[in-house]
């Protein structure tokens, strides 16, 4: 090629090469034994010229190279670099990588429970740690030149996303920001915002996967390609899959089919289905064996359930699967014993160590948040080394952990999102399948979806073909944020800062489109108004009368329903334990025994805006042996006690035998009783004067006699519907303008009322609140202010603080949590009362949890476990009583430790001195009491 150039062109090319070799990027490239991709070079060059960068690229494409170049630049320029990640496991992994490359003396680590070499020039930390530093004005920020925000798309997370925006907004202007994101469809929009708040920012988007991904569907014994081979960007769905889906849909399996007069069992139908077709969902061991025979291991199988992940491992063990030879088995045992040497033998039994080890030796493991962190880290290490070849994982593994595989398997395209079973999104599918294909090892990656009944190839093709998803801000002001901002910038400047958030940036942009829709609607209203014109009179007036009549009838119907609910609630309030009732409707209709009359009328569970109750919710035992907390919806009509029964003192709602015996006694005692039928009363509308008046006016109106009355009425209905929609759009415009600032104003007003703020001054109470981070920051501050925790022992304090962080994975209304007795129980009760006071104040100031702002009710579900562990009880006893996986137990303990540390720092600032120091001293003792055994095992070597 160079021979074709003129001497001048060769001279220019030589000068360009010499200039490139003199850059920091040239030195950096020599540190790697592979060439950089074009997007990595482009981003690094932008960084070297002093620009900030946003890099959006697929999972596994090597985005972190750009972050590592920022580290390289900082060290070369004598500046500091902070590398932030969303989760501690990622921080630990990145710390190990950077320490290996640059030496442990140059790299530090700061997470909620680890602090290593915090004054190093390069510090890896969780994003929350950096946010807290910025608010505290930490000296560690001096000399900071670069901040790398890994997984920045996390700012969409509705629970923690606001932290990313806080950091981006509050970082000093002199700091260069490196944002690394998964591929998002609005990267340019996010880049525009970064340009606005951070200055010159280069947006680099790469859609290219370094290892191509092939999509498959496994049905029966055969693996099908999802897409047909063909030219062009538009891929066609494999016609074989479409045909199979159509065939399956055309068959109907009636559960009431009869064979020789007997009901056909499910197993028989399944066997018949298999005989008639080769389409079925292969079992988990079958899938792993198939992948092994195709050379597609190592593989990660995503199952959206922790219990199912553990069950999958057991199924593979029972099936006799062995993916490791004797030499690899020995190596696995050696690594596992070395990594778990610090765990006492008695704890190993409790943690299911030996069953876990057997799976690892065979090359099979589970990976989920319920596992002990040490166990998870061992699984990750063995997988990367190729000693574990099949991992069954929940989706938490997809969050950036460096565990690439040759194949990724998805059992289903539906998962539980905390509220309901929902289809996974294109973004989630991309994140999960992004693990397939190891750069530098595999030529191609493979995503395999298992065939399920009702499977739609077109739906899967839509998920696989949509490579991007939008980044949506979840930013909301909090109490802690408000006092910290006012202390640093004053109210006016704080308000302006919040208006620069990505949330407000997106809201302002959306207003433009809504305004255009309002204009179009107004044009449509003019047309509808003309179409409903009547030659006999004012049809708009006639339509108004019709609408008023309809609204009045609706209101009366609602009032009647409300009165019936009130009567039913009043009847429920009279129930006593031991009453035999007949539940009139709902899933548990029929005979039932009242175990507990339930809670008083009002809110339950503290989730204002989410769960309202207008009467008691009795806990009952049904005749079918189920113990359930019923709701008002189960009692549309009043209910009366049919009889009474004695409930044995030994009755245990969790014991199947107890439930069976009492249900049997219930059926014997009252099974023959037939409840009285409830008779409906006369409808209120029949005697309502307003309805009578409106009907008379309608009949007397000139338009009532029009032949085209109903045509005009249809146009009038369209007119009023469009006008209502237009008014809603106008309210949305009003609501989206200055939304963040208005929420901030309401928070400031409440804090002023409670003497946390006085104008631009932050009071002593406010200074205490500024040190408390977390969802229940204001509740924690009020507990310190009221002296709720004074005089508590370290274990009792740990129990109380657990209520500030713990949230049960699923609501369980059946049984109240077990609580420690004495002072701890009284303090927990006082915490709930203080929350009730705050909840009422928030309602008064229009601060709503539905908007992601406000204080949820403290959850007492972990108080007993925290108290027992801090009191020195053994792991076996604590886990058995808590009925909780070891990984969850350790995670909640670490979160309690984190908040106890904040309380230790905040308590001495309580006015009135001495007592606050007692709380601080006991908080530190509680930290030491909790940080032992499995909780103390460090994740960093």
Strand order of the largest sheet: 4-3-5-2-6-7-1-8
> Structural class from helices and strands?
alpha/beta
Question: What is the count of DSSP helices, taking H or I runs of 4+ residues?
Answer: 33
Compute the separation of the termini in Å.
Answer: 52 Å
Radius of gyration: 32 Å
How much is the average pLDDT?
A: 81
Low-confidence stretches: 252-264, 601-613, 910-916
Largest sheet: 8 strands, mixed
- The best one-word shape is globular
Strand content: 5-15%
Secondary structure: helix percent: 40-55%
Strand elements, count = 28
Descriptive notes:
The protein is α/β, with parallel strands linked by helices and 941 residues long. A hairpin with a 2-residue loop joins strand 27 and strand 28 (761-762). Helix 17 (426-433) crosses helix 18, helix 21 (539-573) packs antiparallel against helix 23 and helix 28 (794-805) packs across helix 33 (914-930). The protein is globular and about 100 Å long. Mean pLDDT is 81; it is low at 252-264, 601-613 and 910-916.
